[in-house]
Automatic annotation (TrEMBL):
Residues 35-157 form the PH domain. This is PH domain-containing protein. Pfam families: bPH_11 (PF25362). InterPro entries: PH_bac. It comes from Lentzea jiangxiensis.
Amino acid sequence: MTRVLLSLAVFLLFALCVYGMWHGWKRRQRAQAGLPAFPSTPRQLGTARLTTTGVYIGTTNAGNWQDRIQIGDIGHRAEATLSLVPEGVAIERVGATPIFIPAASIRDARTDRGLAGKVMFSEEGLLVVQWENDGHLFDTGFRGDDKDVYEEWVAALVGGKA
């Protein structure tokens, strides 16, 4: 009988944790409902100057590396291909909607250690693009399969060549 009660208590604790995470996710979605809509990807994109594969980490409110944007599926991590095209930065995500950052909205690019709850051991583990949409600043993070290309990406994005 003691084992049954202990097992039930552990299950209830687990269920309470899952409910708390779900409730927090929904609360954050409601709080972020007033954010501007993300730009849609143009029908025609120019030839990519840079392309790399990796994982889309997420998008946060700029300056707050843990404040992940939860609207729609923007908050979902996914394998992705990052492309620098004349129109901006295109992120094609596997199993999720694509994300597009217009060239005119890019404010900064850097390498960083953490974003959206993801922390890397290396100081330069993530490529982060800071961009503005309708007066609101966002940071979008990407963990590339090949981190040696980050310098080239930062130079192209910060140098205004995007």
